[in-house]
Amino acid sequence: MKREFVCTAAAGTEEVLAEELRELGIDPTQEPGALRFLGTLEDAYRVGLWSRVASRVLLPIASFRAGGPDGLYRAANDIPWEDHFTVRDTFMVSCAAAKDRKRDNSRFLALRTKDAIVDRFRERGGTRPDVDRDDPGVRIHLRWADPAVISLDLFGGMHRRGYRGDARAPVRETLAAAALRLAGYEGGPFMDLMCGSGTFLVEAGFIARDI
Fold first, then answer.
1. DSSP for residue 95
2. DSSP string over 40-60
3. Which residue from 3, 22, 34, 95 has the highest number of Cβ atoms inside 10 Å of its Cβ?
């Protein structure tokens, strides 16, 4: 069964990601900050395994005009969350606001979405799933725009490669990988005279070793 997926990317790297997705056998449609494609879950997993440039891979499950936090709550509460996970699973909600909505409080909007999900489970069974911000079983992403979009975030932030722990680099790993791709690096000797936290060197190593 084919579904619509959304791959987000750093501004200016959309074409790099589109080229990468085409190499993975996916035909994307490009838009500012994201690419859409129709595919199977297997296609989405392939992106999760092999894309160096994608920030997130999202599976949209609802789109609506919320108006404000109360409308968001009602719309999120109407989603059949019980079809996606159970009270035994943990979850978290993240929120990204469109440019014209940046003044809105993203944390509050994520909280209202979380409340709507929890209340729906309580209304139907009396119990609720727990929130886990560090290692959730289910990640939910709210795109606060007009219309608003709620998606399942299949892999979380893909710049987190797993080798840094909780430490953060000045340059995101996905952006470093995009820069290397733009520079035409495909393997071989590599020197970074402004090494810093080593992000470019590590990403170059991943490319050279096909990791």
1. E
2. -HHHHHHHHHH-SS-SEEEEE
3. 95
